Amino acid sequence: MSNVLVIGAHGHVGIHMVEKIGKTGDNVFAGVRSDKQFAEYKDMENVSPVIFDLNGTIEDMAKVYTDNDIDKIVFSAGSGGATGDDQTLIIDLDGAVKSMLAAKQAGITRYVMVSAMGADDRSFWADSGLHGYYIAKHYADVELRNSGLEYTIVRPSALTNDEETGKVDVIEKRVAGMNIPRRDVANFVVAVLHDDKTINHIYEITSGSSDIKAVLQ
């Protein structure tokens, strides 16, 4: 049994993630911005909400880790589509990097990043309408890969609210039009957390025909 902190637990993927991780028997700490969001987790099994401020200091973040005996971290936070590039840099890039540095300070090694498909493919960034977002995701991933942490990077295609299928494809290069239900991204992260063979790997995932556990074999 692990103590898992999900950073960005109130996001559209994060909310599914904490619920699904809790059902595996792990203790889940749902990192949120405000205690006004705590009530949303009261009926979830093995889930405890905690304040985790990506605008805070590295020391503040490390204290949340140590106070709750965290041994695995999932970063699923994002500034959201309604904000400008400044908030994308603050949350998606600098917030992510600070959370990695805090993990090292707290002696935590396992770190799972929910990134974005194509974060290494500059060829489409400028025309994506999300140029700043992809830059932030790219360099957050680079920092994680160079951090010395036991990382896994999960890069989903475009996210939908469709029902989960439990099936994905892992691809080598992004193709326009691909998408995946948010719940299946959450399912994939749950599987990654319980499979040490995924350490130091990057997975670009989209809806597909293969069972998640089979993909990870």
Report on the structure:
The chain is of the alpha/beta class and 217 residues long. The chain is 34% helix and 24% strand. The protein has six helices and eleven strands. It has helices at 14-23, 58-67, 85-106, 131-145, 182-193, 212-216; strands at residues 3-7, 27-32, 47-51, 72-75, 110-114, 150-156, 158-160, 167-171, 179-181, 201-207, 210-211. β4 (72-75), α3 (85-106) and β5 (110-114) form a beta-alpha-beta unit. α1 (14-23) crosses α5, α2 packs across α3 and α3 packs parallel to α4. It is globular, with a radius of gyration of 16 Å. The model has no long low-confidence stretch (mean pLDDT 95). It comes from Apilactobacillus kunkeei. This is NAD(P)-binding domain-containing protein.
Based on DSSP secondary structure assignment, what is the total number of beta strands? 11
Q: What is the overall shape?
A: globular
Sheet of most strands: 9 strands, mixed
Mean pLDDT: 95
Proportion of residues in extended strands: 15-25%
Helix fraction, binned, reads 25-40%
Low-pLDDT residue intervals, each spanning 5 or more residues? none
Oligomer: single chain
What is the ordering of alpha helices and beta strands? EHEEHEHEHEEEEHEEH
What's the gyration radius in Å?
Answer: 16 Å
Q: Structural class per helix/strand content?
A: alpha/beta
Helical run tally = 6
Distance between the termini: 22 Å
Biggest sheet: strands side by side, in what order?
3-2-1-4-5-6-10-8-11
